[in-house]
Amino acid sequence: MKPTLLILAAGIGSRYGGVKQMDQIGPSGESIIDYSVFDAIRAGFGKVVFVLNPKIKDEFKEIYESRLAGKIETDYVLQEVGAVPDGVEINPDRIKPWGTGHAVLVAKDTVKEPFAVINADDFYGKSAFELLGRFLSDTKVDSSAYAMVGYKLKNTLSENGSVSRGVCQTKDGFLTDVVERTSIMHKDNDIVYTDNGVTEKIPGESVVSMNFWGFSPLFFTQLEKDFISFIREKSSELKAEFYIPTVANDLIDSKEATISMLTSNDRWFGVTYQEDKETTIREVSKLVKDGNYPTNLWES
Predict the structure, then answer these.
(1) Computed from CA positions of residues 137, 138, 143, 146, in that sequence, does the dihedral angle turn out positive or negative?
(2) How many domains does the chain have?
(3) How many whole angstroms separate alpha carbon 71 and alpha carbon 73?
(4) Structural domain span for residue 81
(5) What's the rounded Cα separation, in Å, for the pair 18 and 77?
């Protein structure tokens, strides 16, 4: 059974100032999504499912339906604020969806195979897909043995502002904890983060999560259980979000799952800020020039 790639593409980037997941960064007009799907295909994935905001659904499908036709099976699901359990009343002023965990959960009726989860606006690299593709190809549909691809912190920073990263703790090759660190940036010759007004150094070799996970369909059952508890407590709030790492930590603590740590040496890059686009275009151009990707990904 070939694994599925679940792409979280519902965000409307407030810091970026546009629909960054469809922005063109490749020499033939490709987006970061195109490179992720291309890498997934050559790593053995058989299907891609996009989680979309209803506002961009039509435009998104118009672009990607024709590009991917005949290349890989595709499907689409919508992440809507109102996608909550029956009987839960949400704040009528709530506009933003409920976070990455909720984005995965809305795909539970569509994804029936072991699957990878990625962000639409992050460039993960060929080797990362190969690592997770091999892991998922051996994963049973009811397995509680999951995986995450981690990156070295020094390979994940933006030149144009601070970032937030989940710093990973491991033991014997397994994830034991993910601690969110905010406002991470270069300062002089160091990498630092700021927490509650206090600035601390953090090693560049630290492994961080870039939201690249591998799960079996069993994860949907575990995710739904946690989401029901979350939404009953937070339904009236305007900004509360339900995150994948929170659920992952709970599963580790309760011993309901194990999460293998697969570390990539690739340099991550993405488009957190509008200014990141120029860097991303430059990095992709280098990869194409070095023969890692064709000039036109989908040219028959």
Answers:
(1) negative
(2) 1
(3) 7
(4) 4-289
(5) 21
Separation in Å, CA 173 to CA 23, 30, 50, 263:
36, 35, 30, 10
Task: Please give the full DSSP string across 167-235, using - where no structure is assigned.
Answer: EEEEETTEEEEEEEEEEEEEETTEEEEEETTEEEE--TT-EEEEEEEEE-THHHHHHHHHHHHHHHHHT
Contacts with 279 (C-beta within 8 Å, 6 or more apart), sequence order: 158, 159, 160, 269
pTM summary value: 0.93
The pair of structure tokens assigned to 153 is 């912190």
What tens-digit pLDDT sequence spans the chain (300 residues)?
A: 899 999 999 875 544 444 556 788 999 999 999 999 999 999 999 999 999 999 889 989 998 999 999 999 999 999 998 888 888 899 999 988 899 999 999 999 999 999 999 999 899 999 999 999 999 999 999 999 999 999 999 999 888 888 889 899 999 999 999 988 889 999 888 999 998 889 999 999 999 999 999 999 999 999 999 999 999 999 999 989 999 999 999 999 999 999 999 999 888 887 777 788 888 999 999 999 999 999 999 986
| Residue 299 domain flag | no
State the virtual CA torsion across 22, 19, 97, 259 in degrees, nearest 10: 40
Q: Looking at the domain assignment, is residue 295 inside a domain?
A: no
